[in-house]
Write a structure and sequence with these properties.
single chain, mainly alpha, 0% strand
């Protein structure tokens, strides 16, 4: 569901960015679209137990929350001329980076490598 929402919002925001000439909206749209596909893949990997455990669910959830903060802040700037809240983009970006790093290490930890 979240991946579908990210995809739809990403396409709509990209169209807005293209017509309104809003670079920050384009960046937000790209992040939404990239992570929509990533969430589908990560969810499938979780269902197939390629990313087992509760930690994978937490990391995927934190990744999605990071995208919401990062893209939401950029979209708010483009559409409303104000921030979502101070430091929303950097916090969202750090959550995304941390989640990706956690997801990269998780299979190694779970397999005992």
């Amino acid at each position: 569901m979240i991946a579908g929402l990210f995809g739809a919002l990403g396409v709509g925001l990209w169209a807005y960015a293209t017509h309104a000439g809003q670079p920050s909206a384009a960046i937000a749209a790209q992040m939404l679209l990239i992570h929509a596909a990533a969430l589908v893949a990560l969810t499938a990997a979780r269902k197939l137990e390629l990313l087992p455990g509760r930690a994978a669910v937490v990391l995927i959830s934190v990744l999605a929350f990071g995208v919401v903060l990062f893209s939401g802040d950029l979209a708010m700037r483009a559409l409303a001329g104000q921030r979502l809240f101070p430091m929303a983009s950097p916090i969202g970006g750090m959550l995304m980076i941390a989640s990706w790093l956690g997801l990269a290490v998780l299979p190694l930890i779970r397999r005992g490598a």
